[in-house]
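Worked example

This section walks through a single chain of length 83. The input is the sequence exactly as stored; nothing has been trimmed or padded.
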Amino acid sequence: MGITVLFLDEKVNLVIHGFIPAGRANHYMPSLKAGFIVKVDRFEVARCSSMYKIIDHPFIIRFISPTIIYEVNTGAPKINLQS
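Given that input, the structure is written out below as tokens.
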């Protein structure tokens, strides 16, 4: 159990699956707001199990205890919400 997030990589036009474990969810919830662009640092990348695969990308981003999220205020790309 946990929170599934989708990351949009505007540079290469990819969607990447992300996962926040239930034990870390309360820590990250204040930083996850609809319509905001954030930067994520210090995360783990792993192969996505076919059992939990929700997109075609072969990897998943896992939030671990050193992971940090912060809002991008300047120079943020414009993301088409219809994508």
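What to look for: The chain has a mean pLDDT of 82.
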